[in-house]
Amino acid sequence: MLAPKSEASRLLGLRLRERRLALALNQQDVALRAGLNVSNYARIDRGCGNPTMYTLIRVAAVLQLEFSELVAGLAVEQLPPTHDGYLAIEFRRSQDNPVHRRLDEGQAGLTP
Predict the structure, then answer these.
(1) How much is the pLDDT for 63?
(2) Taking Cα atoms as reference points, which of 57, 46, 50, 58 lies closest to residue 14?
(3) How far is CA 26 from CA 20, 21, 90, 102, in A?
(4) What would the pLDDT profile of 14-63 be if each residue is shown by its tens digit?
(5) Rounded Cα–Cα distance for residues 24 and 13 (Å)
(6) b (16+ CB within 10 A) / e for 19-44
(7) Is residue 51 a contact partner of residue 62, using CB atoms and an 8 Å limit?
(8) pLDDT higher than 70, residue 1
(9) Could you give the CA distance from residue 23 to residue 53 in angstroms, rounded to a whole number?
(10) Lowest-pLDDT range of 60-64, 84-88, 103-107
(11) Residue 12's closest CA among 45, 57, 59, 55?
(12) How crowded is the C-beta side of 1, counted as CA atoms within 13 Å?
């Protein structure tokens, strides 16, 4: 069995599975009602998929949830690294650094 791609994927899968079981639905029920391929939904439900926003909206509707309930609390730190190893959180932190802000605003103190 495949391991979750990230902590965010694992948590999303856990939320989906708990809700699906609370509604006494199986993976096939959810997939068919959401218009998804059963194996694709099963990967998401196990925390091994990377669903699009549209897929999550359809699944949330089937599970009688708001989209926001599925993604609440998921953070960039829970995502896998990008191909170049630079995470969005690193960009965000660099933007919070006053030196970078001055550079971005053209206030680096350089004279023409």
Answers:
(1) 97
(2) 46
(3) 7, 7, 39, 54
(4) 999 999 999 999 999 999 999 999 999 999 999 998 899 999 999 999 99
(5) 16
(6) bbeeeeeebeebbeebebeeeebbbb
(7) no
(8) no
(9) 22
(10) 103-107
(11) 45
(12) 10
Identify the residue whose tokens are 């650094």.
97
11 CB contacts (<8 Å, ≥6 apart)?
A: 47, 73, 74, 78
Scanning the structure block, which residue is given the tokens 């630079």?
86
> What backbone phi and psi angles, to 5 degrees, belong to 66?
-85, 145
If you search the block for the tokens 């599925």, which residue do you land on? 70
Identify residue 100 by its one-letter amino acid code: H
Look-up of token digits 């969005």: 88
Mean pLDDT over 95-105 rounds to 61
